[in-house]
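I hope you will forgive my troubling you with a question about protein structure. Could you please explain, in whatever detail you think fit, how the structure tokens follow from the sequence? Thank you for your consideration; the sequence and its tokens are set out here.
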Amino acid sequence: MRRWFESALWSSRLVVLLAVITAVLAGVALFLVIGLQTFGVLANMFHCIDPTMAVEQRETIMSESIIKLITMIDGYLLGAFMLIFGFGLYELFVAQIQEAKASMMSARILRIESLEDLKSRLGKVILIILIVETFKDGFQIRTQSPLDVLCVAASIALIGLALYLTHSSAVEKAKAGSETPK
């Protein structure tokens, strides 16, 4: 009875496959949808080349296109987030991805050995998304005073500082891990 229970308990971890499959599908869908939207934005931008277009109309189209492109960067980052999340969950709860072990690229993407590693990688992506979102909001804000510009700049700087601090702590951990005696 105990052996059966422990086997069932251990097998229950496979429920994470639902999250893995949906996260990877969401990431792929984001890349496809954002990729298709990019072609529309590029077409609008090339439309601005028309010399007969009024300057105000050209500036409006370019401004809207830039905001859409920044939003698309967020979409791509969110797609990458979903892929990393799906791969990380799979590697933590199910098995190592054998195909990835054969690829040199996997060391840059996966190398997730604990939930802490997964949280760290996802946290960095979230910080980058925050920077892009804050930049987009700063681009759209109508400044009433120099204080408005300073507040946007300060928020971008603080998010950048958070990203720097997370990166420097990861570098410190890597150095500490390589200095341990073998």
Observations:
- The two ends are 43 Å apart (CA to CA).
- The mean pLDDT is 81.
- The helical segments are 2-11, 16-47, 55-93, 98-101, 106-109, 115-140, 146-178.
